[in-house]
Amino acid sequence: MSEVDWSDLQLFFHVAAEGGLAGAAAITGASAPTIGRRMLALERAMGRTLFIRSQQGYRLAPDGMVLFEHVQTIRRTTADITRWHGDAFALPIVAIAGDIWLMGFVAENTSELRGPADSFRLCCKQLPAGGDLTYRHGMIALFHSAPKSGNVAVRKSVTVAYAVYRAANLAFEADLPWVSIGTEVAVSDAEKWVFRNHEPQIHTWTNAPAVLARLIASGAGRGVLPTFVGDAMPTLVREGEPIEALAHPLWLAVNDDDRHRPEMRLVLDRLASLFKRHEDRFAGRLADEKEPSVRPAVRS
């Protein structure tokens, strides 16, 4: 038996359901003679008699009844798959990508970026080193420096500051060792700063940046964190002022082909407003400087 064409089975279904060629022709738009020829061809291909033909129309033969049940099952399965696919992809996706610290901030504020009535889905992801938006669509990337190439649109945002932190219960402890990000994963100047300036005093390091703040809070030593992270942790205190050489602007970037998509523009505007509202926090400006929130730098 040759392979059966699904379009022929769909025609078969309509002929069987309508009881004749005229009804099937009205539904499908194909002519009655064409449908009749295709039903004959289907019977020959399957080697079975599917219809009992009469002046009153087409009535299903026993083999036709069996095939009709099979086709109904296929149609139900196809409809279920279509609904399943439609539910998953009905809404466009807006992705936001940045380093581990920025994405933690975004995660804490997703309610300001997407509301229950918004017709898009939000994806938060970590941006790999050297992330390029040239071939990435549907993504807003948070960069430490403005992209120098690629088909991208950029918007300058807040200044991000970094400072040295230590555990709050060791606020006045002298000669603390240092905690750092491992050189094998350190990418930014802030992640490399401790190794560059205090390598002999490093007693603990990690290749998981998200663990760094916990190590510092546990008393493992002092380390460098973004001020919007360190100042928000009650278990940490800042040591001195932000490190001026590490401050940098934050850049919001999207593929230029995406910037006019309504959902992308909406999230981009909301993201820019969110950062602006927390501008002082990112710049390391404390509203209420209470001891020992900021303490004088200790020589090491």
UniProtKB/TrEMBL annotation:
Gene3D superfamilies: Winged helix-like DNA-binding domain superfamily/Winged helix DNA-binding domain. Keywords: DNA-binding, Transcription, Transcription regulation. InterPro entries: LTTR, LysR_HTH_N, WH-like_DNA-bd_sf, WH_DNA-bd_sf. Residues 4-61 form the HTH lysR-type domain. The keyword Metal-binding does not apply. PROSITE patterns: HTH_LYSR. GO terms for molecular function: DNA binding; DNA-binding transcription factor activity. Pfam families: HTH_1. Belongs to the LysR transcriptional regulatory family. This is DNA-binding transcriptional LysR family regulator. It comes from Shinella granuli.
